[in-house]
Amino acid sequence: MQGDPVERLLARLAAAGIAEPSTLVIECAGEAGRAASTLRTAMSSRVHAPAILGAAYHDSGLAEGYCTYAIEWPEAPALRAEAMGSLSDHERLAVGLREAVERVRSQGVPVRRFVLTGFTEACGSIDIEFAQAIADVLETRVSVRPCRDVAQRGGEVLRLLARDRSRYASVSQAIKALAEMEGREQRVWRRLDRSREIARLIGG
């Protein structure tokens, strides 16, 4: 997940229709039978922390004064034997995300909202079970915004933004208007009982 140029991060945000700060966009892609096998992130922020640990920092962003982060995701977190046997593959991935997010937050960079975008051959879109795992583990709501080709769509949105920026009151409004989703947005909420059980298993 490391090494993405800032242009790719901005395209990721644009494809998901996200310009607001502190919203982590997670791009997932996978092959049949391996949902969410590739995971990349991007987030706009007003908080500049060039020396941050656990994330790549870029001093440019979608709007003036913004910076952009790519949070580094430990996809294989250390877990107790009981947790390893009781958590699904998706939940173990989400535990890694939780660790990464908490590390970034602890350094003063807020992460408040989560959006999943991309495409997996396994289910013809994003695996909703993966979104549910993120919601349960991080005790949050996850928005799911399908996009078959994030880089291509995001690049198109950014080109339209550069050409038509003056038509909109803000960059956020423009990005939302220009990013047409490929399918209906879905919102996934945490399941309270499962969240409590996961917290017990991982000692959270």
Distance between the termini: 25 Å
In terms of structural class, how would the helical and strand content be classed?
Answer: alpha/beta
Percent helix, as a range, is 25-40%
Average pLDDT: 86
Strand portion:
15-25%
Under CATH, the topology can be stated as Nucleotidyltransferase, domain 5
Shape: globular
Which strand order does the major sheet show?
3-4-2-1-5-6-7
CATH superfamily label = ATPase, nucleotide binding domain
Give the low-pLDDT segments: none
Please give the structural blueprint.
Elements: H1 6-15, E1 23-31, E2 34-45, E3 55-58, E4 67-71, H2 81-86, H3 89-105, E5 113-120, H4 128-138, E6 142-146, H5 150-164, H6 171-178, E7 186-188, H7 192-202
Parallel strand pairs: 1-5, 5-6
Antiparallel strand pairs: 1-2, 2-4, 3-4, 6-7
Helix pairs in contact: 1-5, 3-4, 4-7, 5-6
Question: What does it look like?
Answer:
The chain is of the alpha/beta class. It has one domain (6-195): 2-Layer Sandwich (Nucleotidyltransferase, domain 5). The protein contains seven helices and seven strands. The protein has helices spanning 6-15, 81-86, 89-105, 128-138, 150-164, 171-178, 192-202; strands spanning 23-31, 34-45, 55-58, 67-71, 113-120, 142-146, 186-188. It has a seven-stranded mixed sheet with strand order 3-4-2-1-5-6-7, sandwiched between helices. Strand 3 and strand 4 form a beta hairpin. The longest helix is centred in the middle third of the chain and has 17 residues, at 89-105. The radius of gyration is 17 Å and the shape is globular.
